[in-house]
Amino acid sequence: MAPTIPRIGKSAPLFEGDTVRYDSRKKEILYDKISLVNIIADNQWTVLFFYPRDFSSLCPTEIHSFNRRFKDFEKANAVLIGCSTDSTYSHKAWMEKPRTKGGIDKLSYPLLADPSLKISTSYGVLQRELGQALRGTFIINDEGILLSMTINPAWTGRSVDETVRTLQALQTGAACPAGWRPGRKTL
């Protein structure tokens, strides 16, 4: 059976799961839970991005690009979540390992574990034969409506700058021309 793909303008697939995140106040990596229902209840937007594997060579380039732009997501009232089919234990081990030794260090946002493959399946990004996700990026508004999605193959990284720009454009509620940036006129 072919996986279903979420639809723009429709309710995003609900998800909940275990995460690993770095708590800068406590200076430690913590296990936590997250759900789209709670994010929506807090009137926040969601940027959910999938990546294939922990401890890979391409994934850290995106993980760190998202981390460098974390304040922009925060400023846009958006919860940023990275997700792979790896376990929370794998996420934690990857986060504990220094970048110079193949790790990712501490991140400002949580990594969601999807070892059951349910979340990546519901978002239509699972490569079942490999047990990993494609590089999918989903922007969900504060009412739980999916407004943007892009899906790249595992070997092609995405533009985090474009993700931020798209989020900002969507939040205007207006028609935004190509290359639109905050402060420019909408149509």
Structure description:
It is a single chain. The protein is an alpha+beta fold and 187 residues long. It has one domain: Glutaredoxin (3-Layer(aba) Sandwich). It has six helices and nine strands. A hairpin with a 4-residue loop joins strand 6 and strand 7.
Question: What are the secondary-structure elements, in order, as H or E?
Answer: EEHEHHEHEHEEEEH
SS summary, helix count: 6
- Helix fraction, binned, reads 25-40%
Fold-level CATH name: Glutaredoxin
CATH superfamily: Glutaredoxin
Please report the total strand number as a whole number.
9
What number is the mean pLDDT?
Answer: 94
Unreliable segments of 5+ consecutive residues: none
Q: How many distinct domains? A: 1
Strand order of the largest sheet: 2-1-5-4-3-8-9
| Rg computed from alpha carbons, rounded to a whole number of angstroms | 16 Å
Q: Give the CATH level 1 class.
A: Alpha Beta
Main beta sheet strand tally, sense and closure: 7 strands, mixed
Strand fraction: 25-35%
* Alpha-beta classification: alpha+beta
Distance between the termini: 42 Å
CATH architecture: 3-Layer(aba) Sandwich
